[in-house]
């Protein structure tokens, strides 16, 4: 056993299933295997801005039941960039130094940051400025963090979306309807493509492949002519309208929330095919709930690997899943390339081979 360390762990950005399983894995490995101390930092970097820093001591007996629990016991936020943090008087302030000071006040040897590409980029910048020994773990239902083939939360989100699509087949068939299912994913179509194939969708629309309403309507009419009385369309929230617009709402500090493309499509399809249409927006159901076995396994493997990186002093790195193995790479390398769906991807080819219309 090496020198006793005190490490911090925080969850940042939107929550997803599997975060608690990471917290559990990190605690078991750090405390049980290495004899270290683990402090959970509350509400992402905001816990380090507060005075005293807002933390909870994590012990194996406190975290054991977290494996199957959704959300994050530490809390998180996807608002309030620390470099332009919204203050109560409405002004924006750079609070990165408060975070750095919080880390040093806690006398931490290292920090594990669980986040998507946005959070990891911010954490890395703060770590570089303040001498923070950072190790990253990728999480996001969008599955869009560079290099890693899988991020925590994605598999559960795909499972939830698939189950919803499964259910819609029966009600769609009973009423001769076209069902439009809107899934999350921000700018990446991974959830739509995976859940669409797994759920037997007839049309899958993703932002990486530009689609035309005309082609979608043609496919639905073709199915009608073939005797199929219903169709299921899965659309990613970032798909644009015919005019090239993303349907979104901009919030107070410039953050935008996507959502609404399914209703637009439903209206266009009803007009173009005469079919009755209905919309299901899955929204945050995709982020909540019990993590899938795969997400629990990934979370456990990533948690253990992150602790081992700290034991080896390999900071400024992130754990990734590549070819059935956990591999560590530099955080900068992992986030420099956004992982969108490659239009030549195996799953895109699979969808085409199944006769699924991608709208192009
Ligand atoms: O990035 C994860 C994600 O769930 C996206 O898929 C979605 O667009 C966004 O977060 C929703 O964010 P919020 O929780 O702020 O509504």
Blueprint of the fold:
Layout: E1 6-11, H1 19-33, E2 37-41, H2 46-49, E3 55-58, H3 60-63, E4 85-86, E5 92-93, H4 96-105, E6 110-115, H5 117-130, E7 134-138, H6 154-175, E8 177-183, H7 190-198, E9 203-205, H8 213-225, E10 231-236, E11 248-250, E12 256-258, H9 261-273, E13 276-281, H10 293-311, E14 317-322, E15 325-330, H11 331-336, H12 346-353
Parallel strand pairs: 1-2, 1-6, 6-7, 7-14, 8-10, 8-13, 9-10
Antiparallel strand pairs: 2-3, 4-5, 11-12, 14-15
Helix pairs in contact: 1-10, 4-5, 6-7, 8-9
This protein binds 6-O-phosphono-beta-D-fructofuranose.
Task: Report what the structure shows.
The longest helix has 22 residues, at 154-175. The N and C termini lie far apart (58 Å). This protein has 360 residues and is α/β, with parallel strands linked by helices. Helix content is 38%, strand content 19%. The strands form four sheets. It has a seven-stranded mixed beta sheet, with helices on both faces. Strands 9-10-8-13 form a four-stranded parallel beta sheet, sandwiched between helices. It has a two-stranded antiparallel sheet with strand order 4-5. The radius of gyration is 22 Å and the shape is elongated. The chain is built from twelve helices and 15 strands. It folds into two domains: 6-152 and 290-322, Rossmann fold (3-Layer(aba) Sandwich), CATH 3.40.50; 157-286 and 343-353, 3-Layer(aba) Sandwich (Rossmann fold), CATH 3.40.50. Strand 1, helix 1 (19-33) and strand 2 (37-41) form a beta-alpha-beta unit.
